[in-house]
């Protein structure tokens, strides 16, 4: 019946490229009738009456139809979810409903471990959202928002065993160094008059330059990276589920959103196609030994692989490249932004860190960059960055998982039906008093002297990269960029706030992501001693 309504709708609205639909009374009536009919049908067809299950975690009552939609789309979901878990589930877990879907959010390290370790396999899937089909390359071909399958396992292996190996990252360290040099000289050049810079923008442009060079060995032209960054931002803003993802008959309401997503996808595809085309031309011109063995080459070499287990189609290669852009640029830059703002608001920590860096690098030759090897000799830097990840995990609710079978957790206290969407609240884990003691909200890197917890997915108290089968495969690169950038920023500049600004303006933004609400503007003043 809803389909009949779609046909009506097509006839009323010219499906042009305008994003806005003018809602005539006739259209409203159609929508309303369809909604009522659809609702009745869904009540009848509702999959398994899980609401009646006694052991589903408790949570606030939902609204009719939409359920607890408001929790995720108002204010700060991570904080709200933490409060609800305290109220309804002993601080461990809260049970919700979106449309007809059971949803849980885990807020304690104990249950995070059960989900991501004990029952990792059951929760290895991702929910299927429609934007994955339009924005990305579909639920079955890429990584971030795709199904858990043998194909995904292969792609993940490609990341960890071929692209982001420690050896490759250290061989390609010179790329990061050259890009850092460019940034440092650019900041030196803008000294008169002293300008405030948007820290996140400097770093995300640099991260983009680095990523592009890792991929294709060659930088983009001048401003292409800023454009690409804007595009990634658009991608992020569109990568959110809508009601139609949970209530199937509402899907058709989103056709203009879907059209916009296709346009964003097309823009990415153009960039990626160009990279591949250039490489094919290069391959035709040059003898094979002169072609660089960069990420692009590793990926393209799979195109004609004789081993069917290694073979990738060109679509799949593009999907991987898109995921590298989607997953890698703003996570690193937002973390650096948080690190710099915490350091600027905690001068004691900044000074201690600077002393460590100067100590390792020596003060004679002031122009040499801090390298990865130096970073390995900076234990305080390591603690500072862990503390940043504890307070400001930039993917605060990780990426949601989907259960493939019914499962009992917390020693049988709760039971989650098949098809439960599970969020792990990494932000709340960093604020659990059970782990961190009473001074949870204080920025205090020294806490890691006693607490030997790291961020690599083995300690469920601190999960900025997630854990288990869907853990971030780009962690090594992400960590390398963050450490290296912060160390060099602190080595080369004193950072000041522009006149009249205070750091307290930087509270957490509302919404899904976790960048500061107002971006950090700071004036880099070259150090001279
Ligand atoms: C500071 C930097 C970064 C942070 C904090 C971060 C965080 C995360 C988190 C929390 C997840 C979800 C994990 C889960 O579901 O358990 C994830 C997934 C992912 N990240 Fe990262 N990430 C970072 C950098 C990168 C980089 C540099 C890349 C690639 C170039 C990358 C690529 C991916 C991909 C492809 C996935 C999807 C994995 C899957 O679904 O199997 N990330 N990341
Ligand atoms: C990125 O690389 C381009 C080309 O070399 C350069 O013009 C631009 O300034 C770089 N961006 C940053 C932030 O270093």
UniProtKB/TrEMBL annotation:
Recorded superkingdom: Eukaryota
Polar residues composition-biased segments: 507-520
UniProt key word Nucleotide-binding: no
GO biological process: secondary metabolite biosynthetic process
GO molecular function, one term: iron ion binding
Classification via Pfam families: p450
Region entry Disordered, spans: 507-529
UniProt KW keywords: Heme, Iron, Membrane, Metal-binding, Monooxygenase, Oxidoreductase, Transmembrane, Transmembrane helix
Similarity comment text for this entry: Belongs to the cytochrome P450 family.
Protein name per UniProt: Cytochrome P450
């Amino acid at each position: 019946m809803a389909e009949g309504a779609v046909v009506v709708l097509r006839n009323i609205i010219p499906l042009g490229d305008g994003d806005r639909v003018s809602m005539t009374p006739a259209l409203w009536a159609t929508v309303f009738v369809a909604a009522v009919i659809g609702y009745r049908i869904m009540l009848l067809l509702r999959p398994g009456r899980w609401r009646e299950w006694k052991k589903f975690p408790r949570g606030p009552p939902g609204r009719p139809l939409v359920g607890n939609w408001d929790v995720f789309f108002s204010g700060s979901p991570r904080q709200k979810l933490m409060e609800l878990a305290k109220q309804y589930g002993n601080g461990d877990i809260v049970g919700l409903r979106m449309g007809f879907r059971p949803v849980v959010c885990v807020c304690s390290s104990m249950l995070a471990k059960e989900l991501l370790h004990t029952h990792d396999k059951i929760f290895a899937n991702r929910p299927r959202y429609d934007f994955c089909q339009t924005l990305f390359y579909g639920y079955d071909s890429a990584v971030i928002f795709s199904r858990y399958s043998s194909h995904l396992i292969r792609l993940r292996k490609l990341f960890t065993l071929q692209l982001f190996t420690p050896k490759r990252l250290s061989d390609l360290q010179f790329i990061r160094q050259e890009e850092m040099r460019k940034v440092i000289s650019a900041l030196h050049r803008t000294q008169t008059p002293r300008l405030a810079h948007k820290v996140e923008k400097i770093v995300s442009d640099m991260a983009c330059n680095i990523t592009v060079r890792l991929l294709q060995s060659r930088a983009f032209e001048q401003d292409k990276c800023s454009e690409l960054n804007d595009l990634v931002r658009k991608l992020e803003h569109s990568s959110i589920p809508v009601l139609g993802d949970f209530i199937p008959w509402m899907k058709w309401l989103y056709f203009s959103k879907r059209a916009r997503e296709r346009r964003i996808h097309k823009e990415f595809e153009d960039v990626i196609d160009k990279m591949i085309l250039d490489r094919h031309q290069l391959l035709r011109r040059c003898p094979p030994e002169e072609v660089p063995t960069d990420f692009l080459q590793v990926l393209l070499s799979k195109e004609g692989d004789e081993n069917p287990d290694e073979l990738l189609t060109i679509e799949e290669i593009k999907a991987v490249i898109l995921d590298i852009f989607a997953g890698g640029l703003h996570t690193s830059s937002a973390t650096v932004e948080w690190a710099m703002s915490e350091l600027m608001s905690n001068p004691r920590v900044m000074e201690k860190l600077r002393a460590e860096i100067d100590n390792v690098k020596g003060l004679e030759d002031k122009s040499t960059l801090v390298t990865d090897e130096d970073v390995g000799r900076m234990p305080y830097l390591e603690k500072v960055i862990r503390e940043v990840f504890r307070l400001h995990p930039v993917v605060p609710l990780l990426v949601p998982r989907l259960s493939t079978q019914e499962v009992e957790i917390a020693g049988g206290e709760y039971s989650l039906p098949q098809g439960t969407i599970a969020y792990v609240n990494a932000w709340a884990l960093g604020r659990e008093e059970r782990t961190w003691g009473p001074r949870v909200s204080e920025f205090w890197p020294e806490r890691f002297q006693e607490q030997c917890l790291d961020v690599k997915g083995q300690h469920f108290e601190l999960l900025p990269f997630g854990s288990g089968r869907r853990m971030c495969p780009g962690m090594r690169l992400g960590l390398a960029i963050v450490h290296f950038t912060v160390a060099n920023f602190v080595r080369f500049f004193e950072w000041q706030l522009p006149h009249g600004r205070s750091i307290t303006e930087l509270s957490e933004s509302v919404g899904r992501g976790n960048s500061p609400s107002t971006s950090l503007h700071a004036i880099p003043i070259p150090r001279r001693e």
